[in-house]
Amino acid sequence: MKPEHQKYALAEVPRYTSYPTAVQFHDGVGEDDYRLWLSQIAKDEPLSLYLHIPFCQKMCWYCGCHTSVAHTYDRVGTYTQDLLAEIDLLAAAIPGHHGGLAHVHFGGGSPTMLNDADFAAITAKIMAVFGARPVMELAVEIDPRTMSAQKAQALADAGVTRASLGVQDFNRHVQEKINRIQPFELVENTVGWLRDAGVHAINFDLIYGLPGQSVQDVKHSTELAVSLRPDRLAVFGYAHVPWFKKHQEMIKTDDLPGMEERFAEAHMVGQVLQGAGYIAVGFDHYAHPDDSMAKAAEAGTLRRNFQGYTTDTADTMLGLGASSIGALGPGYVQNAPSLDIWRNAIHDGTLPITRGVALNGEDAMRRAAIMTLMSAMALDLGGHAIGFDAPENALDDALEKLLPLADDGLVEITGRKVKVTPEGRIFIRNVAACFDTHWQMSTGRHSRAV
Fold it and tell me: Does the model's pTM come out above 0.85?
């Protein structure tokens, strides 16, 4: 890493899966606001759903998600019944909607903690009340340790078209330090079961910056991942926030790679994947040239939401389940993270919203600027502002903040046009932060840029 780039790698900046980011969410936005925003959805508008399943078989020490260990299935089964009731509540809040679902994503936690009957009941319910678009993607995040050939077939029978496997790292000594023992053969079998069942779109998640991990370890893991021919790979840097996630205290700070090592690990993943023919998408995704994400990046239709980069074309994403977040034109809403508060609201017949943020006109303009820049790696600031009925110079404050990044070779500026350089791609979060009027540097609120 060049010395002048170190400050960017060390900066704690948002991932910009939303704007304003979740740090700006507050309890001044609640159910009444959400119901108003839902009433404004056009009847024929396509929708996207995110369903959160907050349970795991075992706690991985690196995890930053809203989840807990379910020692018996009773908790999961009860959650399923409450989730079905929430689906009915949400559908009733947008009566007469007939636009159908363009994209459905089960996240967690580990959605494969659901038994086959409960998963099928949830998918049948959302299809019955929302309907599907002629082409709909139904994606599910998978913990390979919960999988079998039977479960793969059940997922396919329920309509799953894409599976995202939490691989993280294939090296045994790293797996021991993160409490996730998951041999390569288990992932290989899971991929085979899914493809045999008819689920051919396969994603992998990889993580660098893990305890005890070296550049050679990352190279080994990435090469093994490539051997299974996934369609997409998401590559994340581990965020060590033990003050926020107590179980991360099990990871020793001394075991974590330093900044230069993390940067070298991230570079190694990209080198292996691009050498194998994968296309770099955004700053942390890679896709096979035949995959729809690579094609969307080429066509300029790539999007970004709470799942990261996506081909989801819906402008409205509705969240279901504890802690889930919905993204609508007027703003964002979040369900109660507490299972008890979430459940009690549903039993009372109310949508379980506890916080969110409403967008003003400038927020909407900056949200679109950030998402376009992070997806296309280029933006005409003047033309963008005019498109939002703002003065051509409305984003000149961002342009001024970008000047030092241009001096350091991360962006190129021509008039009001900004283009991210190949060197700057990995620092795109730093670039996006120049447009953020809410963000302030503060320790521990966001992960490091690299």
Answer: yes
Q: What whole-number distance in Å separates Cα of residue 366 and Cα of residue 362?
A: 6
Q: Which residue has the tokens 């916080």?
A: 355
Residue 109, preceding bond cis, omega within 30 degrees?
yes
Kindly indicate the confidence band of residue 449, based on its pLDDT and cuts at 50, 70 and 90: low
Q: What domains sit in the chain, N to C, each tagged with a CATH number?
A: 18-320 (3.80.30.20), 360-437 (1.10.10.920)
* DSSP for 45-65, written as a single string: --EEEEEEE-EESS--TT--S
Contact 258, 248 (CB under 8 A): no
If you write DSSP's letter for every residue of 257-288 in order, what string do you get? --HHHHHHHHHHHHHHHHHTTPEEETTTEEE-
Q: Which residues, including other chains, have CB under 8 Å from residue 135's CB and lie 6 or more apart?
A: 102
Residue for token pair 């893990």: 210
pLDDT in tens, 22-72: 999 999 999 999 999 999 999 999 999 999 999 999 999 998 888 999 999
Q: CA-CA distance, 440 to 434, in Å (whole number)?
A: 11
